[in-house]
Amino acid sequence: MQWKSRVALAAALLLAASVNAQQTIDWSDADAVVRAAIDANASLAALDARIRAAKERVAPAGSLPNPMLMGGVRDRQIDLSVDEMMTMYMVGASQTLVRKSRRDARRRAAEIDVERLEREYESQRAEVERDVRMAYVTAAAAQNQLAATEEIARLVGTIVDAARIRYETGSAPQADMIRARLEESGILHELLALRRERSVAIGRLLPLLNLPPATEVPAFSLPHEMQHHHDTAFDPNAGDTPATAVLEAEVARAEQEIRLAELDRKPDIDIEASYGVRPRQKDMFSVTGRIELPFRRAKIIEPRVREAIARRDAAQQEIEALRQQLRQDIATAVAMRNEAIEQIDLHVDRLVPEAKLGFESSLASYQNGKTAFDAVLGSLQTYRALNVDYYDFMRQQMEAEIDIDAIHHGARGGVSAGMQMEMR
User: Fold this and answer.
1) pLDDT tens-digit series, residues 64-103
2) CB–CB of 273/94 below 8 Å?
3) In the prediction, which pLDDT does 56 show?
4) Residue 362: inside a domain
5) Domain count of the chain?
6) Which of 120, 169, 320, 365 gives 370 a disulfide partner, CB atoms 3.0 to 4.6 angstroms apart?
7) Structural domain contains residue 337
8) Average pLDDT of span 177-189
């Protein structure tokens, strides 16, 4: 029975975590959801720990190594007898003197490692934020479409009542009532599909927040008015992003590796000093200097220099390739954003109001026996499609905005091209 208790305790803890998340996260605020996701992201926490570790390597990298202390007995006879003329008791110390230029290069290399990890953190954070906002917008748009479709369902109920009344009075065939019922069932089918779409988006969102799949998420929706986050022209070449800064740090690190390899041509110096005592003779001291002879420079040093140069050249080419890809991704996102804004304006100013007016007019005419039932159904379907499309374009605009922001803040690529393929 002990295992049953443990299972019950685990379930209770998960439930408590879910309830606590519902109480602490303001689901109507996308920024609050993003903050919660960033706080719960294990990859970002791991990167933060790596940054702290890299910072601790900076000071040692630029420091001299610890001195070595030595002590012992020299020239003791093999039978362990004491020859006071020969046996010497000695102490000493040695220190490797690393050239300042080498220590500076090592310290700079360690600092570059910190900078690279910090830029990588910014880049990954931008991608995490984009994933969260994309899932949030998809779920919110599905909620808006659910509300719009539920309104259409109420209008279908009006059509069903009109068809029933006309059928009962003998002014319309039974087929009109049957088709109205069929249209009502079709709307219910669409509602189920939209609920599934919202559930899928919530299912993508909850793991990003480190919440259990059974967490109850209250309904949240997009604002009904169009949001303009970027009203100015986009310049893809205006400065580098943290994604390119990561590769630039790789270039700088390779530069330091080149410098360190070249500094091997001037080896470090090792100094050793010792003090010896023979009981019946004068004390003695020794000072010794050691330096490595770069005799095999062609086999040991030069290959390291060429390797570092090749790594630097590769990183420089990767920077250019990434910049080209980011320019393409931003251009795609801007095009999708601009199309969405034009479509939203068209839907708000003309299409949706005219479709609503057309439906109301055709319904009134049908109720008075002046219009065929096909006209009512056609106008209703047009009104429904335009209402749903409006929120699709709102989602497209917001997703493009999110993608652009993510690229500018360090994402290593855009997702708008993939979204465009899905829409097609």
Assistant:
1) 888 999 988 887 777 777 677 778 888 999 998 888 888 8
2) yes
3) 94
4) yes
5) 1
6) 365
7) yes
8) 88
Candidates 229, 201, 244, 205; CA nearest to 407 is 244
- DSSP string across 18-42: HHHHHHH--TT-HHHHHHHHHHH-H
Task: Number of helices (H) and strands (E) in the chain: give both, helices first.
Answer: 11, 4
- Domain extent, residue 333, equals 17-45+100-109+122-265+297-423
**pLDDT > 70: what percent of the chain?**
88
Coil vs helix vs strand at 307: helix
- Per the domain annotation, does 416 fall within a domain? yes
* CA angle (147 as vertex; 179, 372 as ends), nearest 5: 25
Tokens of 328: 């393409």
Q: Is there a domain that residue 278 lies in?
A: no
* Beta bridge pairs of residue 271: 95, 289
For residue 66, the SS3 value is coil
Neighbours of 67 (CB within 10 A): 11
Helices of type H across 57-99:
58-61
Q: Which range has the worst mean pLDDT, 101-105, 209-213, 418-422?
A: 418-422
CATH code for the domain of 215:
1.20.1600.10
Q: How far is CA 419 from CA 164, 226, 392, in A?
A: 44, 20, 12
Amino acid code (one letter) for 232? T
Q: Which uninterrupted H or E stretch holds 257?
A: helix 242-263
Please tell me the distance from the alpha carbon of residue 412 to that of residue 337, in angstroms, as a whole number: 20
Q: Which two tokens stand for residue 259?
A: 């410098």
Range picked from 224-233, 287-296, 346-355 for highest mean pLDDT: 346-355
Dist CA 121 CA 320 (whole Å): 21
Are the C-beta atoms of residues 358 and 382 closer than 8 Å to each other?
yes
Cα(228)–Cα(205) distance, rounded to whole angstroms? 24
